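QA checklist item 7 of 12: single-chain prediction sanity check.
[x] sequence parsed
[x] length recorded as 151
[x] structure emitted
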Amino acid sequence: MSAAKKNPTRLALIKKVHVAARQLALTDDCYRSVLARATGGKASTKAMSIIELEAVVREFRRLGWKDQPARKAGTRPQADTEQARKARALWLALANMGVLRDASEAALALWVKRQTGVDALQWLGPEELNQVIEALKSWVARERAKREAGR
């Protein structure tokens, strides 16, 4: 394979083109038509230069594709269900009491993994989330009782 084919910029642009086509739900014929229109006749990314690939990406944006910035490796969006928010609120209540050394989402995920064997809140079902919430409520209640006893 030639050095031009291994160019990381070129490969990244090809990935963008393929992602855009998939997200726009284009048929193969429509996809090839957009490629040809944007490049003056080339219907395959394999034969395109970087400039032509950039033109194709611009054309997909014009057609309504939104280029999402890449997430950092190893990150995932937070769970956003009502139960997950409740669990997070209880976790932060414990942090506000000074019980936790680390109140981060990553620390919560580690605690959830120890409790359930599941790596993250977003992968828990409603019953498992309920168990997590009840465990956190019990922890908060124990800490409050300790504080009351210490007065």
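[x] summary fact logged: The two ends are 75 Å apart (CA to CA).
[ ] second reviewer sign-off
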